[in-house]
Design goal:
Elements: E1 15-16, H1 31-35, E2 42-44, E3 47-54, E4 75-79, E5 93-94, E6 128-135, E7 145-150, E8 153-154, E9 156-161, E10 164-169, E11 176-179, E12 189-196, E13 209-210, E14 214-215, E15 219-224, E16 227-239, E17 244-255, H2 258-261, E18 265-272, E19 275-283, E20 295-302, E21 318-325, E22 331-339, E23 344-347, E24 350-353, E25 356-357, E26 360-364, H3 378-390, E27 395-397, H4 405-414, E28 417-421, E29 431-432, E30 435-436, H5 450-464, E31 470-474, H6 483-495, E32 500-502, E33 520-523, H7 527-534, E34 542-547, H8 558-567, E35 571-576, E36 584-587, E37 594-597, H9 626-634
Parallel strand pairs: 26-27, 26-35, 27-28, 28-31, 31-32, 33-34, 34-35
Antiparallel strand pairs: 1-10, 2-15, 3-4, 3-6, 5-13, 6-12, 7-11, 7-15, 8-14, 9-10, 9-12, 16-17, 17-20, 18-19, 18-21, 21-22, 23-24, 24-25, 29-30, 36-37
Length: 638
């Protein structure tokens, strides 16, 4: 198969040879690497790559992936990093509109409009980043099945290894993985990656943020053991009244050959600290090998003692360990995962966690670093968790895309409730200059956009399904409503009925209110509007997915919302917009001092200017005075 530049123009083609999404579990090859927490079968490709910037696809070095192509004239670039932050292209911030509005006329293919071939592939402005990395396999990976993983690549990427085309992927904020075993060699590998700033995915990624592109999250190689846990789902159920817990475990096992599976087994152990409280073993004999070459194992057991529930006040985690033994009884792989026992449900017209009314003292959180944009660090995440805890913030909405994998683990450990949002926002397709006009809204009910959106929902679920912190799946943000979102909701409900599903957009289209969201979710409703809803025989509890927009000297009047928590049981809180300012630390041209620059400061048009600065912490993570208000009022309902 050869790469086709026209894939950029076709919403029906959004992944080619990309592996199916799976759980985000870590794996270790032996007891020693587990004890030392060393992922010896993981090789980072972060660092300095060769790079060439082109303003459009026509001007890109199309043959750069060929092994004999001379890249000595390419520039160095750090990975991960946004291409704009590295000094190329234009920095551009915009909220509701698509970034090309007023410059180029575009309508999404597959809607009521004619398909526009070449919309992105032949555009005069659609920048391309051509990356090259030469690498040797580390010794631990030699002879293994090799998986190439991009944790974040915005917005469409083509991949080649040693001159051979490997695959194509969109969905900027979720992991894209490719099996490169047939192409990789022990020494002197040439990895070529072509990243395009825009494709049809741009219609689905119209979030309120700076429009960057490039390899902005980690790039890794993984060597798979001879027998490998490809996917796991550890459902830890909990009955709060009896303090009883049960573990329902499903494993998907792959191997180099079918013979490796015969006689192999999975040994399961659940620990509290170092004390074993549950164990079992499943033999892989007599299990049918699936069409994809895997074996699926299932195991369920009750926890034989009172269980401590997981919640914000006591985020108790138990350590699950899965040991895969080969036919000779030797350890082939060890998979640890911390699980939490909790129950989230809709009961008596309320959202309840562990049998108690759930109150959300939340924030919306863009990933942000003042120097690196959305290419954030571990230190940023650690600070954010500590900041939320000390200011009585108990929940976060991952606006409006999946976050780095490490964030969900930190929320598990800290007891931060997560609304896990799918990477979907098509704001500019239905709201024009403040008016609602869904004439060409995507995904809407259009067949051409169905699979790409459902794939984003599946990926969000598959990667994060094991995290106790994830209480809600969110269909996305500000994408109006339609049959495709209805199907997303049905997917989450059928696949994971033990969690709640959220979506706000039904407020604009009541035809879908009974089949998209478990709760009445709105943005910026006034207290009186909330009262009117709750006093008029409400169908659902009320949640503000965005409120208290903290721009400038704002966040006054928070008391009027917090008072509603005591007045109406079916009012269950909300998420402040938002947690952190989006601003970029730049050197002032006159003084030479470092200053924060906001939207519009880069001659970016169209722009929503300082609207990018609406957090309760500044972009450099200094708390704003408004945080005192947040801490006080959120502390009233801890």
């Amino acid at each position: 198969m050869h790469a086709d530049i026209k894939w950029l123009d076709q919403p029906e083609i959004f992944r080619v040879n990309r592996l199916d999404a799976h759980s985000d579990h870590r794996f270790y090859e032996d007891e020693k690497s587990l004890r030392e927490n060393r992922e010896t079968l993981k090789q980072s490709l972060n660092g300095i790559w060769k790079f060439r910037y082109s303003v459009n696809a026509k001007e890109r070095p199309a043959a750069f992936y060929e092994e004999e192509y001379d890249v000595s004239g390419f520039d160095p670039i750090k990975v991960p990093r946004h291409i704009e932050i590295a000094g190329y292209d234009k920095i551009h911030y915009i909220n509701t509109m698509y970034p090309w509005e007023g410059k180029e006329y575009r309508r999404p293919a597959g809607t009521l409009h004619e398909r526009e071939d070449g919309m992105f592939s032949e555009a005069d402005y659609n920048p391309v980043g051509s990356y090259v990395r030469i690498f040797d396999l580390e010794e631990a990976l030699v002879g293994k099945r090799i998986i190439l993983s991009f944790e974040g690549a915005e917005q469409a990427l083509y991949v080649w290894v040693n001159g051979s085309f490997v695959g194509y992927a969109e969905d900027s904020f979720t992991v894209s993985e490719f099996d490169i075993t047939p192409y990789v060699r022990e020494k002197g590998n040439r990895l070529a990656v072509e990243v395009h700033k825009r494709s049809t995915a741009a219609f689905l990624e119209d979030q309120d943020f700076f429009r960057f592109f490039g390899l902005f999250r980690d790039v890794n190689l993984y060597g798979l053991p001879k027998i490998h846990v490809t996917d796991m789902w550890a459902k830890a159920s909990y009955e709060p009244e009896a303090q009883k817990g049960a573990l329902d475990l499903t494993l998907k096992i792959s191997a180099e050959t079918d013979a490796d599976l015969s006689g192999a087994s999975a040994v399961i152990c659940l620990k509290e600290e170092e004390r074993r409280i549950l164990s079992g073993e499943i033999s892989m004999n007599n299990f049918e090998i699936q069409k994809d070459g895997t074996v699926r194992l299932a195991w369920k057991a009750d926890v034989p003692e009172p269980v401590r529930q997981w919640d914000n006040r006591d985020p108790k985690l138990y350590c699950l360990q899965i040991r895969i033994l080969d036919p000779d009884g030797n350890v082939a792989e060890i998979v640890p995962y911390d699980v939490g026992f909790r129950k989230i449900c809709m009961q008596d017209g309320l959202m309840k966690l562990n049998g108690e009314r759930l109150i959300i003292n939340g924030v919306n959180r863009h990933e942000w670093n003042a120097s690196e944009g959305r290419s954030i660090s571990e230190e940023d995440e650690i600070f954010d968790i500590a900041c939320m805890k000390r200011n009585n913030i108990n929940a976060v909405r991952t606006c409006h895309y999946p976050d780095r994998i490490s964030w969900y683990y930190r929320c598990d450990e800290a007891g931060i409730y997560v609304m896990a949002e799918t990477n979907l926002e098509s704001h500019g397709s239905w709201q024009k200059l403040g008016a609602i006009d869904p004439s060409w809204n995507v995904p809407g009910s259009f067949d051409a956009w169905r699979e790409v959106v459902l794939d984003r929902a599946r990926t969000n679920f598959e990667v994060f399904k094991n995290h106790p912190s994830v209480l809600f799946w969110s269909l996305g943000n500000e994408s109006y409503a339609g049959d495709v979102l209805k199907e997303m909701n049905a997917y989450y409900k059928e696949t994971d009925p033990d969690r709640l599903v959220h979506y706000e957009g039904v407020v604009h289209n009541r035809a879908y209110e009974d089949c998209i969201s478990d709760m009445e979710s709105r943005m910026y409703a006034k207290p009186q509007q909330i009262r009117e809803y709750l006093e008029d025989q409400p169908k659902k509890p009320f949640l503000l997915c965005e409120y208290m927009h903290d721009m400038g000297n704002s966040l006054g009047g928070m008391k009027s919302y917090i008072d509603l928590l005591d007045q109406y049981e079916m009012y269950q809180g909300g998420f402040i917009w938002d947690y952190i300012d989006q601003a970029i630390l730049m050197e002032d041209e006159v003084t030479g001092q470092k200053v924060l620059r906001y939207g519009g400061d880069f001659d970016d048009r169209p722009s929503d200017y300082e609207f990018s600065g609406n957090g309760i912490v500044f972009a450099d993570r200094m708390e704003k005075p408004a945080m005192q208000e947040v801490k006080y009022y959120y502390g009233l309902h801890k």
